[in-house]
Amino acid sequence: MIKKINRLKNSNCIIFDIDGVLIDVRKSYNSAIIKTVKYFLKKVIILNMKIDEEQLFSLIYSLRHTGGFNNDVDTSYAIILLLCYYYEFLKYKKIDLHGTLDQIIKKLDEKGINSLEEILFKLSKHNKLINDQLLRVKNILNYPAPVGQSIIATIFDEFFYGPKMFFKRYNILPKYYFRTPLIDHDKIIIKKSTIETLSKKVDGKIGIISGRSRLAAEYSLGKFLDYFNNDLCVFLEDEKREYAKPNTFAIEKILTKVNDVQQIMYVGDAIEDLIMTRKAQEIYKLKFLFCGIYGCSINPTKLIKNFKLRESEIIVKDVNQLPKILNKV
User: Fold this and answer.
1) Which of 92, 225, 250, 295 is most buried (CB neighbours < 10 A)?
2) By residue range, what is the domain housing residue 157?
3) Structure confidence by residue, pLDDT tens digits, 237-268
């Protein structure tokens, strides 16, 4: 799907997200969420509750649709709190898992875990046992404190980075996970020919705004990262937490280093990416086009629908389709 095709020729800078766009992370980041949630339910909080991976993936997708869960540790934390609320509520009334949790998730917004906590504690304020249990879990997780202080942030990154990279990143010895890092399951999607073609089209003005760290980007992209203009790359895991998408901090940082930009095309796979570009367009009075990628989504059909509802200018399955689209302009 392509809208306003006459506007495409004006883009002279292209910024990419990494996860779900340049790299397929379904067996890395998504698996880290699943493993983290299961670890806590079984070994930390100890809920006698069975939930399969399909149900967890559904919750991941629903949370990402809100635009406030670009951070996968946030997503893990949210799912644990939601499941604890559900488990405690079952003691008083029979309720449907997804029917109940979906109603809560639909009320969430780009404030992410702050909006989740506000809603859950409001719902449980008249039931002291449920409220106390949520507070207990929240205190155990100690989030959003950083790795080394928050057990959930620490365990998630141990799963994702593995023991060697975890120590390299944080200078902290791992405590919980000593096996193969899930980052090894990252799969590069973008082709060399795609990067070369797009870079030539915008005179080398191609960059990255990603929620991951530079270390993780370098590890998974390898030599592919050399194609991107370093001045136009922002790795938000290395920045302050409040700068995460959909905050426009990364775009502002890039705009201080790029000249003569007529229009920026941002290529992303999530609603918070789209929200970020819309905000930036209003703040910086610069034209943005959004290209939504859906090929690695947990639920491609719903993501396409959501991109359409928010009037994404381009919607394609694979980033490697972009050169052909731009060549037609």
Assistant:
1) 250
2) 29-183
3) 999 999 999 999 999 999 999 888 889 999 99
> Do 36 and 13 reside in the same domain of the chain?
no
Contact 12, 202 (CB under 8 A): yes
Model pLDDT for residues 205-236, shown as the tens digit of each residue: 999 999 999 999 999 999 999 999 999 999 99
Burial of 134 (C-beta count, 10 Å sphere; 0-12/13-18/19+): buried
Measured CA to CA, the distance from residue 159 to residue 147 in angstroms comes to 12
E-strand stretches of the chain = 13-16, 23-24, 187-188, 206-210, 233-235, 263-268, 287-293, 314-316
Residues 205 and 245 in one domain: yes
Q: Could you tell me the two tokens for 267?
A: 């290529």
DSSP 43: I
| Domain shared by 37 and 178, yes or no | yes
Q: Domain of 252: which CATH number? A: 3.40.50.1000
Dig out the tokens for 306 from the structure: 């959501």
Tokens representing 290 are 């959004």
- Statement: residue 277 has pLDDT above 90: yes
pTM, entire model = 0.93
